[in-house]
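Take a look at the protein record below and flag anything odd:
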Amino acid sequence: MIRLTATGLLFHGCRHPVQIGRGGLSLTKREGDGATPIGRLRIVGLLYRADRLPRPAPWAKPIGPQDLWCDDPGHPAYNQPVRAPFKASHERMARRDPLYDIVLITDWNYPKATPARARRSSCISAAAWATPRQAALRLTAPT
């Protein structure tokens, strides 16, 4: 079992540093509050920077320079991975800093975000700050 706490991701008895939203942990997560929700979330995907890290699990998908994530609640691709060039509001997945070197995608308002559900917030992911050695963490397949 993987457990997210304010001090990191607990997995197999080890604590791994992750980025928690600027709003901390919240039971009442809303779009724009910068918080990370408290709840039971399923891991539905794993992304990683192949140019920086070895593949952390057989089911992981690489992040490349053209990979973006749509964060525009009014766009049909909201909460979906998209490719550059992309005009709507988005976040670049291949960042200069290590924030998105490893990303666990959860089922929080994903993959079928709707305008009514958009108030809950965009897709929640656990972005792990990792060195190549830490990236050797092996994860079980998503359910």
